[in-house]
Design brief:
Structural class: alpha+beta
Order of helices and strands: HEEHEEHHEEEHEEHHHE
Helix content: 25-40%
Largest sheet: 8 strands, antiparallel, barrel
CATH architecture of the largest domain: 2-Layer Sandwich
Length: about 260
């Protein structure tokens, strides 16, 4: 009976096979790949058939892989993914070993016989979880979800106030309005936004559900009050708001550990 219950929970997407505490010392890496026109499928095939398993072989943890939903955000050319490492030094050593692996070299060569896949060098941002980031659940759910990556850029000296607002108000209001928390991070390096940026990922039933949730959230009196109180001395994010708050709706790839 216990085995049957376990299997039913797995099939229903209610059992979380891997749960990582936000404070367990892991380092996360956000990587964004931009492909040449028509090469996204080749890139996804390379990850599906080779890259992901070679990452694991060399001690790199696969967290999630996504493609933007909207063309203006790169639906035809962009792969966004998150990795986890034991440390920055471990990441360096893992990528050194990965790059030297004959299997990777052969896979890369074969995948680029029809032309170079990437339009430019990958963007890499090392990140650490905030103190309010929930345990990272790496699991597939029974029902497909849409994910949203949001990047906030604060005015100088305002990041702590933004964290306080998320910790004390925003997160519980997100939950109230049907949004699911995946993780909240800050960049580790100043040139990538340490001290001024917050990067987080939410999950929604659909993009329309996400948009509806944010409409309800912004109209919530508790949010209006919390926002006003936190911004008595001026906006926390840079203005105009379209520059200070970036949103990218994404769908998980078929090989993404998080679905």
């Amino acid at each position: 009976m216990k085995r049957l219950t376990f299997l039913l929970l797995v099939l229903a997407g209610l059992f979380t096979p891997i749960l990582h505490a936000a404070d367990d010392g892991r380092v996360y890496e956000l990587r964004i790949y931009t492909c040449n026109e028509g090469k996204l499928d080749a890139l996804l095939a390379r990850f599906r058939d080779h890259t992901c398993k070679l990452f694991e072989k060399h001690g790199i943890g696969n967290v999630g892989y996504w493609v933007p939903v909207d063309e203006e955000n790169g639906s035809k050319t962009t792969l966004i993914y998150v990795l986890e490492h034991k440390s920055r030094e471990a990441a360096k050593e893992s990528f050194r070993a990965f790059g030297a692996d004959p299997e990777w070299q052969a896979a890369r060569k074969a995948s680029e016989e029809g032309g170079k896949i990437l339009a430019r060098a990958p963007e890499s941002i090392f990140m650490t979880p905030t103190d309010y980031s929930p345990p990272l659940a790496i699991a597939k759910t029974a029902k497909p979800r849409i994910f949203e990556m949001r990047t906030y850029t604060t005015n100088e000296g305002k990041l702590d106030a933004l964290h306080a607002r998320f910790r004390d108000h925003t997160m519980k209001l997100f939950s109230k309005h049907g949004m699911s928390h995946i993780a909240y991070w800050v960049p580790a390096d100043k040139e990538k936004g340490a001290g001024t940026k917050l990067i987080y990922i939410l999950a929604h039933d659909s993009k329309d559900a996400g948009l509806a949730s944010f409409t309800a959230f912004r109209a919530d009196p508790d949010w209006i009050k919390a926002k006003a109180e936190s911004e008595k001395d001026g906006p926390l994010t840079i203005q105009p708001q379209t520059e200070g708050v970036k949103s990218v709706y994404m769908k998980a790839t078929d090989f993404s550990p998080i679905q």
